Amino acid sequence: MSGHSKWNNIKNRKGAVDAKRSKIFSNLSKLIRIAVREGKSGDPKFNPSLRTILDKARTANMPNSNIEKAIERGLGKSASGVSIQEIAYEGFGPGGVPIIAVAMTDNPNRTAAEIKFAFSRNEGSLGSPGSVMYMFRRSDDGGYECTMPMVIEDKHIIGSLKILVEKLRECEDVEDIYLATTIDEEE
């Protein structure tokens, strides 16, 4: 009768449900941070995109403490009073594809370690400052545009690149990812 414990079954089901909720909450908090930063206001009365995302967060039963933390981070503050800074991490993906991962963080050492781990586990490498930036320029909306795009036709490289981008998006502090190539999502 081993493996038929009622507690074990409850624990496994609860763990699966908690993992799904955690992923939803982290995506919603990232959307809240972006809406606050773009709307330049943490007040939903003056920021319609924030109001829409807050409705989604309440529908998903996101705790108010998580919502408040996301709004504070979007405004550039953290709970401990440390200012949040924007850092662009440069690296190379599978096939030598240049990548810029823009992060908003209160702890650059932790964020650098997370991003380096994501690169190293997914056929990439974190580059030194300036190693990739020369291939991009700042766009009008504050993002980056590639000035020298690459064309990649190898399906293995494209698949590995998609996995790397997904792992980088899972990092909590990463806000945007810019590639020197285009990836078709329907492939």
Total helices: the number is 5
- Spatial gap, N to C terminus: 46 Å
CATH topology group of the largest domain? Alpha-Beta Plaits
Broad shape: globular
Q: Can you put this structure into words, describing what you see?
A:
The protein is of the alpha+beta class and 187 residues long. The chain folds into two domains: 6-74, Arc Repressor Mutant, subunit A, CATH 1.10.10.200; 85-179, YebC, transcriptional regulation domain (Alpha-Beta Plaits, 2-Layer Sandwich), CATH 3.30.70.980. The protein has five helices and six strands; from the N terminus they run αααββαβββαβ. It has a four-stranded antiparallel sheet with strand order 3-1-2-6, covered by helices on one side. A two-stranded antiparallel sheet has the order 4-5. α1 (6-39) packs antiparallel against α2 and α1 (6-39) packs parallel to α3 (64-74). The chain is globular.
Summarize the structure.
The chain is 47% helix and 16% strand. It is α+β, with helices and mostly antiparallel strands and 187 residues long. Strand 1 (85-92) and strand 2 (98-105) form a beta hairpin.
Structural descriptors:
Alpha-Beta Plaits; alpha+beta; 6 strands; Arc Repressor Mutant, subunit A; globular; 4-stranded antiparallel β-sheet; 187 residues; single chain; 5 helices
